[in-house]
């Protein structure tokens, strides 16, 4: 071949010229016929990019530096290239003729098969060249020299391949194909101004539909428990879009307590829908027990009004719908719950509806044009002149009123820059294939697909059929799949890395609406998207000869085909054919719950392998072609992974274990570009010699070590590193020069986390070193997020906050920078949105340095400081005394500070006395939280637009005077403000207030009236003697909690309140007698009792009120007293009761026999019933949970098999006694026995006054029993006040040091509330000898570090202890010395 006689450079230039010259309109998928009346059209087989890739790989092998070719092999490679070029030049004409010439189409199908074989052969040769490169790097020179690439078998292999290609070339001779050289890869500029984030749910022509549906859903005439409103219409008409508009409507959000969204699809699974409901509500779905799912659903959906969207329902099954509706009705018997169903099927609508269906009509021509125009002329990429408008309106008209068609066609037209191209689309014959009613828009999707800019982009789109419908496709995941399949190779000649090509393809598919519903992260980066169901169907149809999706079927049913891309769901049965020839050429495999073992050898041509909950063995080393490996690993991972030299992406989730040798050999994966391994973060470890992976772009964490191969300089050679990285153990970096060796300034990292492990002072540690190291770690100007943790320099380097350099910076987190004496200058960062500073223990004042540099340079630049900041948090700044305004720093008449601030939190600043006076001028402030600032006696004022205000543990004597103007305030919480004596009378003017919590304000004597709109009210441990006036008229109140208000004289008639109440909690106040309106209520949860001496103190359980509760009450908790010896008999009438909790009935010996009448009872909890011995609950057939705590007589009596009461409880599935599950019973610790919300589990409510009992039962931490001689182990005991809580401190000595316990002191005087929260065991103190000998309190508490375990304990304990003040540290040191 003459061309190969030139230099490699010349050959490559010629190849690139050829490579840019081809043109086609359909990818390499087999023929698909779409029928419309008498017309039909076919999808062509197009192989341009495949042949281009083969030529590029052959040239790469020819030019490889690591392979010594013998002349025979080199000649065969040149022959292969010559034949590939011949095919390439004929290919374009063949593809044009295939639709009318069956012989040509068959030839293309044969060529496709041979092309895949050639791809595998060349890939194998490439793998062996990588093997040679790795072993050369590992200095295994002798082994490398003994390796002969050009052995006879390899020459034979390539000759066999040449024979197949010769036949292909010979067969084409008689077809009379013309040689053509056209551009097969039109260049796509990376700087094209494309907006991929156009709103997919824009409101065009649906205003009336939204208004009508909202009115139906919130109508007062909607009096059914569950009402169902179907939206019916053809595919692509916008049913889901309409449902989203309704779902996000403000009136809907105000009317319903809970909103949930489920995409149902074609499989109507009741359990699956319930799980998706919980997922929509952001519930933890780690539990798999069906009963648990029901329980959580009942908790979330019970006693409230909810709106549930069931999107894309296809299954026409009355029985399954009846089952789901039955469960939902059981969860909540309240009227006014609604379900909106979107469906294409009239039958589904008829089965499910209670309201008349909402038939969605097509859009008008003008509305279609509006959507089309927005997509086509976005960002001014194309000028809208009269000619294009006329053509565009005609194209929009042909979209037939279908919004999806208008969006996709409009997105396609934004890439057509001249009138001729627009006319080609307008006159395309494909419009003739549309039905009269446009019910099938596949022809429109094909038209737009044909006009995607490049062949490889079309193949990328079609490949996405491998993902399930409604799947949140992660952008990085999709691009890595495309890359692994070789679909992004074709743009490399333009010096574009594959990820950049993939990013551009992704953006184009979003802009054309083939992808939609894009979501972004906090930095504005697109992270996920979805495909419309109809688009997914189209993608699957054009790839169906190569893509196989099996959902619940046996693989034996498909043995007759040879798919390339396969996804199985976790219900698929894998038959014998799975390991046979039917899958031998498989390139992508996605599989759940299957143990491959040695079967992996049957899939040796895989490029992509994703295994979820599957085991793998050493046989994985046979997958030498593998580019992407994603496994959820369980157990030990095989070291043979390190032999997959073609690997580009390695993602290992879960708890896979890495041997040390495996970590050392990961650097052999020299083509690796992306690493995601949970183990590195979990075990605080990085691979050795990672600097050898010069292609690496993604590395989430790097842990600096002290040995060769783990130094920070390993990051230096990683020139392509980008995205996010956490660099840990920076205390091990010696100096600034070593820090600079990481070359962070050259790497396009947008999220950077820099962590030191300076939890404690370390002897001989050079704290000045941290400043120099941080200076050397200056990042790239594209930085968007910066986190610095446990940095021990006294100041920050000059680059932090440099607005001229870091104009893209969005987030800054500065945590545990304990020695910093001033905050950095950040006020001029133009894009900073989030700022958190915590643990700066030496900062005494925030002043001018915070806003601008000392030269006042900002005065001539801007009058806005922190112009974009939305969230600001100051936390744990122990010495901070004042926070000054910026206006003192300039002579300008006005400087606007924090103009966009929405959320301000100030916590744990015990010496803070002053806040900035201009706080009330923060016009955007929505949320303000001030906590644990005891020296802060007042706020300068709050903005009138504030919505959320919390004042906790502060020295406030009064609330801000401007509160009366806060007409937008919705949430107000005041807690532990012991100096607070009053709340302004104007509280009732806060007309938007929905939730008010006032707790532990013991000097507060009076609460003013509350607005009638209030929905949630808690008054706990306050000195008030009456409830707020007008409370009984609060017809919206759903939650009322009154506890420990010992001065409260009475509770008035709740009047209208009872009708709306859902949760009522009245306990531990002296006078519990109340009156209720005699009307039906909605009460679901009732907590009542405490400090009561007789059963009459439960008036709510007496007639006539009980008849208004028996059908609605689901949960009941009774607080008794030492004198009560039985339960109120009226409880037996609560036929709907599901949970019953009884505590502090110390005189009761037996539960009543009538308890078995409660047929709905599922949970029974018994606490602190000292004399209780008998449990006649054998006939409680539905009881599933029994919990017993601190009922001293029951532990032995309920012993499994031998206890006297065992026969009464043996039928209960889950039994828990004193914190432990009984042997042989279900030990699922995730089970929630007590679902009373707001942390209602309180161990000490009403106590006996016997000191012996107190010491025996109530000095327990986490159910750890003290032995009988507990007092002998206490060598020091002292009362210790933390805030307003009083504790007894017990420190017992052991061989390791001191065992510190903080036990709440029980205060029985009624004017004081008991300590509420048990403090857990803080730490196993390991105080070192230097601390013990010190006569003055050490600055920090030091710990022995004799073992890893001890070190971990000290690291866990130290930050907790830092929060304690100096006197506490002094006291702890004193205790140790006294020992």
TrEMBL record:
It comes from the Eukaryota. Gene3D superfamilies: 1.20.5.4130, Helical domain of apoptotic protease-activating factors, P-loop containing nucleotide triphosphate hydrolases, Ribonuclease Inhibitor, Winged helix-like DNA-binding domain superfamily/Winged helix DNA-binding domain. Residues 207-379 form the NB-ARC domain. Residues 466-539 form the Disease resistance protein winged helix domain. Residues 50-138 form the Disease resistance N-terminal domain. One of its GO terms (biological process) is response to other organism. CDD domains: RX-CC_like (cd14798). One of its GO terms (molecular function) is ADP binding. The keyword Nucleotide-binding applies. Residues 712-840, 1130-1191 form the R13L1/DRL21-like LRR repeat region domain. Signal peptide: none annotated. Keywords: ATP-binding, Leucine-rich repeat, Nucleotide-binding, Plant defense, Repeat. Coiled coil: none annotated. PANTHER family: DISEASE RESISTANCE PROTEIN RGA4, PLANT BROAD-SPECTRUM MILDEW RESISTANCE PROTEIN RPW8. This is Uncharacterized protein. It comes from Lithocarpus litseifolius.
């Amino acid at each position: 071949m003459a061309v190969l006689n030139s230099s490699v450079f010349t050959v490559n230039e010629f190849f690139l010229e050829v490579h840019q010259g081809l043109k086609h309109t359909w990818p390499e998928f087999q023929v698909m016929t779409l029928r419309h009346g008498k017309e039909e059209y076919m999808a062509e087989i197009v192989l341009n990019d495949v042949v281009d890739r083969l030529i590029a790989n052959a040239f790469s092998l020819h030019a490889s530096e690591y392979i010594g070719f013998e002349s025979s092999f080199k000649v065969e490679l040149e022959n292969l290239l010559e034949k590939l070029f011949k095919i390439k030049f004929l290919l374009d004409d063949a593809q044009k003729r295939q639709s009318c010439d069956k012989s040509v189409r068959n030839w293309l199908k044969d060529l496709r098969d041979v092309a895949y074989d050639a791809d595998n052969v060349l890939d194998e040769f490439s793998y062996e060249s990588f093997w040679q490169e790795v072993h050369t790097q590992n200095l295994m020179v002798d082994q490398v020299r003994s390796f002969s690439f050009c052995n006879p078998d390899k020459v034979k292999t390539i000759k066999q391949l040449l024979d197949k290609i010769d036949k292909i070339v010979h067969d084409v001779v008689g077809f009379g194909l013309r040689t053509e050289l056209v551009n097969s890869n039109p260049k796509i500029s990376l700087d094209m101004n494309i907006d991929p984030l156009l709103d997919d749910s824009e409101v065009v022509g649906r205003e009336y539909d939204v208004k009508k549906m909202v009115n139906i859903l919130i109508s007062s005439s909607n009096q059914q428990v569950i009402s169902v409103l179907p939206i019916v219409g053809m595919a692509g008409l916008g049913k889901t879009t309409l449902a989203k508009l309704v779902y996000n409507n403000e009136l809907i959000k105000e009317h319903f307590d809970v909103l949930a969204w489920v995409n149902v699809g074609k499989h109507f699974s009741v359990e699956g829908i319930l799980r998706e409901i919980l997922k929509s509500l952001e519930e933890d779905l780690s539990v798999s027990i069906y009963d648990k799912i029901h329980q959580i659903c009942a908790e979330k959906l019970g006693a409230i009004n909810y709106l549930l969207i069931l999107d894309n329902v296809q299954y026409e099954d009355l029985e399954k719908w009846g089952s789901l509706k039955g469960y939902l009705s059981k969860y909540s018997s309240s009227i006014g719950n609604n379900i909106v169903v979107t469906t294409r099927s009239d039958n589904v609508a008829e089965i499910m509806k209670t309201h008349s269906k909402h038939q969605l009509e097509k859009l008008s021509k003008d509305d279609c044009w509006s959507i089309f125009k927005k997509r086509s002329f976005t960002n001014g990429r194309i000028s809208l002149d009269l000619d294009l408008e006329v053509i565009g309106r005609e194209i929009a008209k042909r979209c037939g009123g279908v919004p999806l068609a208008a969006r996709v066609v409009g997105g396609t037209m934004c890439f057509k820059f001249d009138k001729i191209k627009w006319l080609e689309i307008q006159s395309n014959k494909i419009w003739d294939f549309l039905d009269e009613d446009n019910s099938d828009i596949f022809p429109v999707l094909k038209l737009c697909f044909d006009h995607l800019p490049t062949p490889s982009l079309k193949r990328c789109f079609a490949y996405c059929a491998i993902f399930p419908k409604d799947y949140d496709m992660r952008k990085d995941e999709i691009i890595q799949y495309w890359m692994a399949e070789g679909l992004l190779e074709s743009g490399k000649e333009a010096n574009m890395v594959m990820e950049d090509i993939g990013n551009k393809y992704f953006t184009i598919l979003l802009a054309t609406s083939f992808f939609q519903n894009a979501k972004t992260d906090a930095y504005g980066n697109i992270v996920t998207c979805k495909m419309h169901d109809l688009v997914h169907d189209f993608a699957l149809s054009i790839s169906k000869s190569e893509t196989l999706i099996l959902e619940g079927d046996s693989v034996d049913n498909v043995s007759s085909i040879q798919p390339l891309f396969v996804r199985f769901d976790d219900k698929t049965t894998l038959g014998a054919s799975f390991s046979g020839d039917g899958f031998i050429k498989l390139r992508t495999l996605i599989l759940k719950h299957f143990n491959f073992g040695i079967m992996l050898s049957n899939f040796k041509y895989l490029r992509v392998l994703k295994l979820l909950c599957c085991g793998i063995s050493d046989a994985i080393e046979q997958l030498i072609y593998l580019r992407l490996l994603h496994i959820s690993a369980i157990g030990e991972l095989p070291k043979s992974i390190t032999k997959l030299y073609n690997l580009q992406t390695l993602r290992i989730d879960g708890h896979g274990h890495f041997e040390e040798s495996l970590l050392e050999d990961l650097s052999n994966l020299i083509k690796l570009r992306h690493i995601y391994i949970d183990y590195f973060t979990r075990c605080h470890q990085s691979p050795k010699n990672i600097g050898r992976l010069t292609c690496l772009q993604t590395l989430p964490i790097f842990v600096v070590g002290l040995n060769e191969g783990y130094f920070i300089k390993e990051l230096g050679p990683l020139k392509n590193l980008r995205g996010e990285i956490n660099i840990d153990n920076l205390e091990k970096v010696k100096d600034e020069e070593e820090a600079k060796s990481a070359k962070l300034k050259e790497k396009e990292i947008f999220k950077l986390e820099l962590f030191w492990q300076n939890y404690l002072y370390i002897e001989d540690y050079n704290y000045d070193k941290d400043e120099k190291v941080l200076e050397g770690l200056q990042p790239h100007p594209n930085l968007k997020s910066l986190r610095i943790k446990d940095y021990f320099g006294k100041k920050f380097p000059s680059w932090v906050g440099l607005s001229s350099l870091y104009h893209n910076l969005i987030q800054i987190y500065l945590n545990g920078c304990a020695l910093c004496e001033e905050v950095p200058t950040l006020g001029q960062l133009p894009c900073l949105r989030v700022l958190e500073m915590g643990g700066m223990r030496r900062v005494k004042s925030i002043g001018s340095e915070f806003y601008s540099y000392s030269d006042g340079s900002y005065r001539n630049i801007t009058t806005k400081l922190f112009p974009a900041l939305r969230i600001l948090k100051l936390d744990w700044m122990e010495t901070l005394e004042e926070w000054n305004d910026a206006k003192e720093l300039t002579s300008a008449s006005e400087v606007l500070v924090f103009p966009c601030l929405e959320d301000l939190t100030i916590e744990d600043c015990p010496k803070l006395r002053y806040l900035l006076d201009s706080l009330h001028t923060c016009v955007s402030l929505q949320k303000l939280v001030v906590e644990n600032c005891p020296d802060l006696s007042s706020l300068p004022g709050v903005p009138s637009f504030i919505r959320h205000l919390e004042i906790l543990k502060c020295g406030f004597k009064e609330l801000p005077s401007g509160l009366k103007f806060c007409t937008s305030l919705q949430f107000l919480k005041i807690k532990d403000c012991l100096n607070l004596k009053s709340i302004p009378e104007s509280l009732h003017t806060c007309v938007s207030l929905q939730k008010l919590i006032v707790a532990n304000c013991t000097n507060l004597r009076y609460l003013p009236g509350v607005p009638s709109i209030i929905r949630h009210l808690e008054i706990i441990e306050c000195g008030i003697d009456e409830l707020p006036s007008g409370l009984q008229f609060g017809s919206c109140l759903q939650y009322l909690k009154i506890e420990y208000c010992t001065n409260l004289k009475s509770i008035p008639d709740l009047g209208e309140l009872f009708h709306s109440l859902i949760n009522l909690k009245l306990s531990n106040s002296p006078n519990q007698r109340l009156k209720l309106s005699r009307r039906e209520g909605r009460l679901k949860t009732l907590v009542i009792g405490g400090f009561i001496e007789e059963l009459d103190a439960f008036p709510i359980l007496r007639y006539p009120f009980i008849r208004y509760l028996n059908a609605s009450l689901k949960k009941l908790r009774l607080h008794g007293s030492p004198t009560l010896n039985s339960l109120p008999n009226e409880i037996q009438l609560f036929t709907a009761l599901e949970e019953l909790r009884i505590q502090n009935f110390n005189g009761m010996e037996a539960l009543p026999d009538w308890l078995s009448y409660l047929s709905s009872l599922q949970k029974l909890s018994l606490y602190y019933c000292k004399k209780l011995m008998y449990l006649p609950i054998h006939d409680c057939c539905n009881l599933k949970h029994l919990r017993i705590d601190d009922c001293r007589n029951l532990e032995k009596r309920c012993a499994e098999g031998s206890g006297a009461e065992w026969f009464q409880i043996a039928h209960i599935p889950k039994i828990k006694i004193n914190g432990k599950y009984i042997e042989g019973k279900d030990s699922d610790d995730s089970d929630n026995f007590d679902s009373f919300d707001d942390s209602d589990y309180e161990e000490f409510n009403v106590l006996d006054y016997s000191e012996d009992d107190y010491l025996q039962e109530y000095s327990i931490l986490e159910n750890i029993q003290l032995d009988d001689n507990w007092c002998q182990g206490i060598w020091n005991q002292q009362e210790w006040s933390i805030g307003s809580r009083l504790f007894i401190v017990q420190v017992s000595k052991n061989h390791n040091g001191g065992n510190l316990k903080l036990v709440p002191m029980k205060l029985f005087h009624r004017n004081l509330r008991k300590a509420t929260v048990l403090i857990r065991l803080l730490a196993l103190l390991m105080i070192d000898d230097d601390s013990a000998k010190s006569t003055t309190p050490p600055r920090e508490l030091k710990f022995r570090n004799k073992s890893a375990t001890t070190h971990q304990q000290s690291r866990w304990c130290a930050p907790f202890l830092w929060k304690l003040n100096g006197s506490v540290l002094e006291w702890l040191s004193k205790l140790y010395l006294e020992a």
